[in-house]
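Submission sheet (multi-component)
Chains listed below:
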Amino acid sequence: MVQSILDAISLGGLYSLAALGLGLVFGVMRLVNFAHAELITIAAYTLVLTTQFPLVVSLLFTIIITVFVALVMEFSVYRRLRGVNPAIMLIASFGLSTVLQRVYELMFGALPKSAVVAPFLRGDFKIAGLSITISSVITIFLTITILLAMGYLVERTSLGLQLRAASADFKTARLLGVRSNRLISAAFGLSGVLAACVALILVIQNPQISPYYGLNITILSLVGIVIGGIASLRGAALGGFIVGVVLSSLNTLLGNGRVYAYSWLFILVLVILLVRPGGLLSKGTELERV
Amino acid sequence: MKHGGVTKFSIQNLLGPIVVLILLTQFVGGASTSLQLITQFALCLFVMVLALQVFVGNSGVLSFGHGAFALIGSYTSAILTAPVNIKENALAMNQLWEPLVSPQVNVYASLAISAAVSGLIAAITGSLLMRLNGLAAGIATFALLGVAYNVFFNNKKIGPGSQALPGVPWITNTWILLLLAVFTLIIVYLLNISWIGRTLRATREDAMAAPALGISIFKVRLIAFTISGAIAGLAGGMYSHVAGTFQVQDYYLEFTFVTLSMLIVGGSASIWGALVGTFIITAVGQVLLMMEQDIPVFGLQVNIPLGSRAVIIALTFVVMLLWRSGGVTNGKEFSLPKLKRK
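Outcome: structure written.
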């Protein structure tokens, strides 16, 4: 029971990190970056393929590579699509996502790559007679730390102020002196860092990396940012958290019916959207064409 | 932003794509047995892209849910036509619900039923989904696909679950598929120039002004969603009869992305764009496949490394979007080049 609750919270936290990465980029350029999945995948590959180094070095290396890939995406594709209909940008990001998946398949092969990352985080320990897995506790701890750091960055720093301003109204923010190219690059870079963090937590739980590794979590956190409210980063994080908690709880509660967990989750999403089309944290309705 | 879309009947807008479609089917499909099969699949996909064009192209609302209608259409058609002994004895079908075992209908009747069932489900789900806008609508339609896939993938009482339902009767005659495609094309064209197409495009261009002119966005979107759901059902039904099998995985993410990219690459605002996009994506894939297998293309032998095909297809798609975000046709309908007068 305690373990289930911890699992639900840790999965929720993980999804909220992924949702935050998507939300950052969406905020500044109205782009649903579906290829975020491939950032998570490359980070996971890097982690698994650099296990011979100490964890800190490997993690640093992972962050550098992931941020690099995120910036390459921005410079090679998205920068040329500024101001284009968001639907086209979304479709372009699907294309980019497919390109990267195929490249990974060529580079690393279609079969899963696997290695034990951070072996000391495996196993479980006992508190008051209850057995609890170490990874769930570590996940919660990591998530809270990263969310706090992100919260500080977004709420207290100049970059965060610019990000929030650009999310609210990009044109006005530019008029007030926010440098759009630099800000968008920063948003992509940050989303790369978040993708690396998500990958670290994912790899501890499941070290079987295939070219589609990041796909599932990205789709679900995409659903999360929409039900949370895409207009704000808080909404994105909250939505991701809800999706994670609901999915984890469904898996526990449904028993043998857990194969239908996704159906119930999606039905819940539909209900939330019908009641609050702008997301849970939205104020009033806004028409947006995507 | 100005997008394409015709309002007046023009014989060349309608006949152009039909003639091109017939010529392609005749010359490409008639070239070899393997090309014939590819043409048959392409015709099914073209009908699917037309379904997307009706709704996505005209309304500007992305739908990821049409894969669900194709899935339901394909399933309906397959379960109604697969021989009783296969439904009774195939390993994949050993848990099939009793009333589903005996029904048998003619292949063509099954296509009509597929379209009707998918259209009905599109009408029911649309009456909820069409209240949404923008990204929320996109995600909600995706949720629809997710539910349909999840249920069909796991429920072995209604179908083959994650396995394939074999023995679905084949439609081997390419001309029948062509006839269905042309029939759909004419319907979609007439729909696009009717008040439904025009008001739908009005809501796409300006979601504030359209209601002010007395247009009910909900109503017109629901009509288009229903019709396009029915066409997607027909496409799914055709697909199962060309493949000779029904498998849930065929109608999930990849199917959704491929058909949507065909629409977008060609230019989502026109029927001509739907045809061009379907052709380009199919042709690029095919030519690269031949290169990968070291088969000469048009007498030219170009070898590319194994596995690079998929990368190049996806790259082509991205480059095309960067080059022309409105699609190759830029949303214009077919028209003959105007002769210059001296």
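Remark: Chain A touches chain B at residues 32, 77, 80-81, 84-88, 90-92, 94-96, 98-99, 102-103, 105-106, 219, 222-223, 226-227, 230, 259-260, 262-263, 266-267, 269-270, 273-274, 277-279, 287-290 (CB under 8 Å).
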